[in-house]
Design a protein that fits this description.
Helix content: 10-25%
CATH topology: Alpha-Beta Plaits
CATH architecture: 2-Layer Sandwich
Distance between the termini: 23 Å
CATH class: Alpha Beta
Bound molecules: iron/sulfur cluster
Structural class: alpha+beta
Shape: globular
Number of helices: 2
């Protein structure tokens, strides 16, 4: 883990941009084992939960402010 907002699951690197997160919870509802809101109402990847690549990508795509960046094997796949 690079910082509390970045996490690797399998081939995916998941990064939340805390400055862009508005705490809408869309990612948490879509992939609750991977995203959680911290005490400042900002999404953070969980430390040990997991989910399918497809659902993690869906969670990122559900974010209204594009605050979740997904890279697969180092290549950014979301936002496109
Ligand atoms: S969907 Fe986006 S804005 Fe909403 S909590 Fe998740 S990262 Fe934050």
């Amino acid at each position: 883990m690079i910082d509390s907002y970045t996490r690797q699951i399998g081939d995916l690197e998941i990064q939340v941009l805390p400055g862009q997160c508005i705490g809408s919870s869309a990612c948490v509802h879509t992939a609750p084992d991977v995203f959680q809101l911290n005490d400042q109402n900002i999404s953070e990847p969980t430390s040990d939960g997991s989910d399918s690549e497809e659902n993690i990508l869906l969670a990122a795509q559900a974010c209204p402010t594009a605050a979740i960046v997904i890279r697969k094997k180092g290549k950014q796949v979301w936002p496109e």
